[in-house]
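Protein modeling request. Please complete all fields; requests missing the sequence field cannot be processed.
Requester role: graduate student
Desired output: 3D structure, token encoding
Chains: 1
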Amino acid sequence: MSKLRVVQYLNQFFAGLGGEEWAGEAPRVQEGALGPGLALQRALGDQGEVVATVCCGDNYVHEHAEQALEQVLEYVSQYQPDLVVAGPAFSAGRYGLACGQVCATVQERLQVPAVTGMHPENPGVELYRSRVYIVPTGATAATMADALKRMAALGLKLARGERLGLPRVEGYLPRGLRFTELASETTAVRAVDMLVKRLRGEAVETEWPLPEYDRVAAPPPIRDLRQATLALVTTGGIVPRGNPDRIESVFATKWRKYSLAGVMDLTGQDWESVHGGYDGTHANQDPDRVVPVDVLRELEAQGGIGRLFDHYFTTVGSGAGTAAAKKFGQEIARDLVASGIDGVILTAT
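Delivered output (349 residues):
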């Protein structure tokens, strides 16, 4: 039996090109395994061969989405793969979105099965989980070897056209799809069995899990901005130079608020970005690009807004888990409400 042909998609970092300074790199291709592909090849064993590696910068794939995707597809199709493996992306948001997009498009346009790997809280999961098989990974590349091993096992089954079982059995994230199967016991027997287990305090797994939606009602509009007090909140990691409170550059565990009293403009001499998820060069040159104090001061002076709140709130969004982000938001919101704020401008990266 011949080996299955596998093409892997990587971003600029894992392809060994470099960090953020290479994030604008256009797609390129190289024959054989590269970087994590060496571990993928070991996981495939004699059942598959990594025949090529396609890589693209994280910024380029989003800033030139159509062009980047067409070039990636062209490179992939040249090698006539039986399987495409993207990533794993772990908790990297831009990378995860790119991996999901590549896998979904490869499946839909080239009719080639694909698999990727992400941390469950990667934004790419919610966007692509219904279209792509995603293997759950840890938050960082420390789990690379294990992730690739499980991605290879799942990918080989997909490439061979084998029918997959339940997500918990096969090791992929639930896709929200329903399939009809014949059970050995009737509905009544299964229902009573679940009830008895629940009464005994034993673990029970429902056959029909209900989705959970976190819905937030839209607030009423501000009636008159000329009378309103506005506050600035950012996940862009702008802090006083030196980062006095040591906010982490990724996986932040805290947020802080800093005084803007008497501050008309954020300068690179006094403020900086500590965010680890984007190139901070331009933010460090002019921190107002992330936290627009200068523009709001102008509006304040012109009477366009009532006033700018004398503190701003900051944290780092890169790698932030949903639970931590929700906690930060609730804590910051309580502070804002207590301060009588009328509206918030939330900036990211």
